Amino acid sequence: MNYKNINPEEFSKLMSQEGYVVLDVRSEREAAQASIPGSMLIDIMNPSFASEVEKLDKSKNYLIYCRSGQRSGSACGYMAGLGFGELYNLAGGILAWSRSAVAA
For the chain, how many structural domains are there in total? Predict the structure, then answer.
């Protein structure tokens, strides 16, 4: 595994640092219901996902989330295979984020 699963507190701490990009891999419909401020949306289920990811800067660090952590884990694995450096998966996804103190 070439990425790290982290909790909402760790995710929030890294978000505030330079060089980190927050990536939401859910659908537009899901993102409209709730999302983490400042995140970029690239739907992993969309056929254009691969081409969109290939446009991203591999020198940046990515904080990736979805609804529960499953799709974002898949996205992390895919991106690691493309040579992206530091990848972090939000364990439990937006559901865990919404239940945590950082979402308040």
Answer: 1
